[in-house]
Amino acid sequence: MSAAPIPFDIPFDPATLRYDDRGLIPAIAQDHATGEVLMLAWMNAEAVARTVEGGAVTYWSRSQNAFWVKGASSGHRQRLVELRVDCDRDCLLLLVEQTGPACHTNRRSCFFTAVQEGAEVEIMAPIS
Amino acid sequence: MSAAPIPFDIPFDPATLRYDDRGLIPAIAQDHATGEVLMLAWMNAEAVARTVEGGAVTYWSRSQNAFWVKGASSGHRQRLVELRVDCDRDCLLLLVEQTGPACHTNRRSCFFTAVQEGAEVEIMAPIS
After folding, report:
1. Which of B8, B9, B12 should one mutate to test binding to chain A, selecting the residue with the greatest count of A CBs within 10 A?
2. Minimal-distance CA residue of chain A relative to B40
3. Hey, are the CB atoms on B83 and A114 less than 8 Å from each other?
4. Among A87, B54, B89, B98, which residue carries the largest CB count within 10 Å?
5. Four-residue CA torsion sign, B94, B98, B101, B104
6. Tell me: the pLDDT tens digits for B37-61?
């Protein structure tokens, strides 16, 4: 896959990103301070624009078919510190400040099981 | 979305993951030592199995429609240190040991531009 030329030092435009056939792009949320990868969710162009403009990370919920302001109901909000774009312009990395757990299971990260010696084990407990 | 119960402490089976309608699951590669997010690519069930069994990270190339042993041609290999699974079982986090640059542009990470004050700027140079 060849990507379009990378627009350096010009105003960022969400339309320059590459969305899939549903109009979505995957976004990885990483804790800006610790480097911990917290979750992956999806955005459409409008969600990208809202996130960059407002700072409250806003995804597109594929199950609800609606905008999803992270933490709007739980209080476990994500504030955008920096948005990064990959070489193919088809994936985003969000450096965020995460309030409380990122996962709906009340764990800090959604990635809470690991394959170790062929078995899948829990490596992170819910925040009590 | 509700996910299937998490199979703790039983042998890991790639068939328990949730693949999209193309039979693919996104996989985030993170440097196991520094925490740097290097790239996102895709795997099918067989790529997951090969990666876990052999330790050489193997993706499914959507453009080539073929298995893609990372670094097989460039030498910029990824060795799996640990595979993690998210709560919905529809995304993987690979902690890896990366030889050289992860990006085909010769940068350490594929995420080498950032939106800062509304403009997209380059934040990482190719490895010389």
Report:
1. B12
2. A91
3. yes
4. B98
5. negative
6. 999 999 999 999 999 999 999 999 9
What tokens were used for B117? 């004050």
Q: Do the Cβ atoms of B111 and A93 come closer than 8 Å?
A: yes
Entry pTM: 0.93
Q: State the ipTM, two decimals.
A: 0.93
Cβ contact (<8 Å) for B119 and A37?
A: no
How far is the C-alpha of A42 from the C-alpha of A17, rounded, in Å?
13
Residue whose structure tokens are 């079982």: B89
